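[Discussion] Sanity-checking designs against the backbone

I'm trying to build intuition for which residues belong where. Below is a structure token string of 462 positions. I'd appreciate it if someone posts a full sequence so I can compare it with mine line by line.
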């Protein structure tokens, strides 16, 4: 595409995903504007790069000749959406923009599009892959779903031969992409609001994704995951490349853990490639590293060129990230919002020194809490104390009979319902913490702010 002639206007530009796409387009030479209900660190960064940012939604922001970008969350009666339809402008879902970006320079035979998908880990793996390629001097372009701390961005337009992206399955849009290397970390039912017929609907979506790949594309899957094994069973004509802890093409052996680090030996078809050291904890990050190694080695990069940078990768923003530390209390923030993710995060926390393991959980979406109710009830067995905040609706309407208060009633004695906004909840929780507590805040909403709020209240009260 001729970037100098493209004008993009993003409705709700301030989110992590939309802002990343906007940043990429800006860096590639496009003209970008966007609106959102409030200013954020992401909108400020875009302004610095030359974007025109509007606070609030107004039809006047939409002009002739623009391409309008909107996410699924934008309602049809949004004034900018109404104006765009009146002007008969092209309206793109954010997935259409990612598809457009992924197909840039597709005539370059050396260019490789690496896409990471799956129910869990796609932000970490796409971020880790982007980081390793960048540090190895390969100048990748990328769009991922979280900030890579060492690079201080979630998107970048660069001159190298690699484009890395996180591919979202939550609304079925993964079928739009055709990466040269498709990495599927795992598959488990989630997003029950979209996949009405359960797990088979998810498998059917990925089957379409696989059918859209080029003949020479490579598909890499987690061989230890029941969900991805079912995908293999239902696609017998495809050749899958596997990673895992046993019976896999790329395999981890001699795994060692301590509180905040891990290491393993990497084998390919039984042959030792070398030792891998990670500065991020937990068994799930062994799998994350395996998937990235498999992708990069299958892309033709030597082990020795990339291995050192796995150790210097400190994880993604909001993935087991230290949020606050005071008076013997440590608060870790994590994006986990699915029962399996929560269990995995809490298991990693158990390996860290603590007197009590305390969790602060903010359910994300009424539909998810309803659809996975029983799984959520068993997700917190590792904790000594659990605080449950009000549900973060994420644009959903309430569902009768589904509330945090009722969830706590079903959980039992070690769970406490904490009502109110984050600032109010922080005060209620702060007075119940003890020196030696390891606190994990969990959820995809604004619970990420609670660690700092607790610290501020605690320090102001002593």
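Best answer:
Here's mine. Compare freely.
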């Amino acid at each position: 595409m001729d970037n100098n002639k493209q004008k993009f206007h993003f409705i709700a530009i301030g989110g992590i995903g939309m802002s990343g796409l906007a940043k990429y387009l800006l860096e590639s030479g496009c003209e970008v504007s966007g609106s959102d209900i409030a200013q954020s660190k992401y909108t400020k960064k875009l302004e610095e790069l030359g974007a025109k940012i509007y606070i609030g939604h107004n039809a006047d922001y939409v002009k002739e000749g623009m391409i309008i970008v909107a996410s699924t969350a934008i309602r049809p009666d949004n004034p900018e959406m109404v104006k765009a339809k009146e002007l008969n402008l092209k309206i793109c879902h954010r997935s259409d923009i990612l598809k457009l970006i992924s197909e840039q320079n597709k005539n370059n035979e050396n260019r490789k599009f690496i896409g990471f998908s799956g129910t869990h880990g796609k932000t970490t793996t796409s971020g880790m892959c982007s980081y390793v390629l960048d540090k190895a001097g390969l100048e990748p372009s990328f769009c991922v779903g979280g900030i890579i701390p060492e690079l201080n961005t979630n998107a970048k337009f660069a001159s190298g031969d690699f484009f890395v992206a996180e591919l979202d399955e939550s609304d079925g849009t993964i079928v739009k992409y055709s990466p040269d290397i498709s990495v599927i970390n795992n598959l488990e039912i989630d997003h029950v609001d979209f996949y009405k017929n359960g797990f088979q609907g998810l498998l059917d979506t990925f089957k379409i994704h696989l059918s859209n790949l080029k003949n020479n594309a490579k598909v890499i899957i987690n061989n230890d995951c029941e969900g991805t094994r079912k995908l293999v069973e239902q696609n017998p004509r495809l050749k899958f490349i596997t990673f895992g802890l046993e019976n896999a093409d790329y395999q981890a052996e001699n795994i060692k853990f301590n509180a905040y680090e891990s290491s393993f030996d990497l084998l390919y078809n039984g042959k030792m490639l070398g030792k891998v050291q990670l500065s991020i904890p937990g068994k799930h990050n062994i799998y994350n590293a395996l998937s990235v190694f498999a992708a990069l080695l299958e892309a033709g990069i030597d082990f020795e060129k990339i291995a050192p940078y796995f150790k210097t990768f400190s994880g993604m923003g909001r993935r087991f990230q230290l949020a606050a530390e005071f008076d013997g209390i440590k608060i870790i923030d994590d994006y986990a919002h699915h029962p399996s993710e929560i269990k995995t995060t809490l298991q990693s926390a158990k390996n860290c020194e603590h007197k009590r393991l305390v969790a602060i959980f903010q359910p994300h979406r009424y539909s998810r809490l309803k659809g996975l109710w029983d799984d959520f009830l068993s997700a917190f067995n590792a904790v000594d104390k659990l605080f449950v905040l009000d549900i973060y609706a994420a644009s959903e309407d309430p569902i009768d009979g589904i509330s945090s208060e009722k969830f706590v009633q079903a959980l039992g004695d070690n769970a406490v319902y904490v009502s109110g906004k984050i600032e109010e909840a922080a005060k209620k929780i702060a007075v119940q913490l003890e020196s030696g507590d390891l606190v994990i805040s969990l959820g995809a909403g604004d619970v990420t702010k609670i660690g700092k709020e607790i610290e501020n209240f605690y320090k102001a009260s002593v």
